[in-house]
Amino acid sequence: MRLSQRHAFILVGLAALGLTAVAWGIGEWLHLQPCPLCIFQRLLYLLLAAIAFCAAFARLVRRLLSGLLALTAAGGVATASYQSWLQWQSDTSLECGVGAPSLLERIVYWFGELWPQMFMATGFCSSKEWVFLYLSMANWSALCFFAFLLAAVWLARGAARS
Whole-prediction pTM value? Predict the structure, then answer.
């Protein structure tokens, strides 16, 4: 059975929403303190979902939306990889939230004011509060974003053929 492009985009969107819900649920259940980079990754997952759902129903611009999906996923890989790097460093001067807020932090804080239960950043980017199979949540997030990047490239190739 062959998966249609529309269903593939819907599946990508549902996966991105699911990962957002899982990250939020784990944080609530274990009382984890998400950092600005964690919250930014949540926002990127939600953006991935929105782009994927738009692509599912906008056949004429699927190739463009696949490119946006790939760029968003690449941004997620970069963000999660940077957070993973911060977790391996012991230099607290590299910590996010130190000094004047960056554009990314201002965006996160704005969303935190709108919906604090979902987007309030209260933790430190270098802390590894949750580890599963020797990988932190940032490590798992980088892997998931990489999978979304591969899916976006695959979907873009399919959109180019149709």
Answer: 0.86
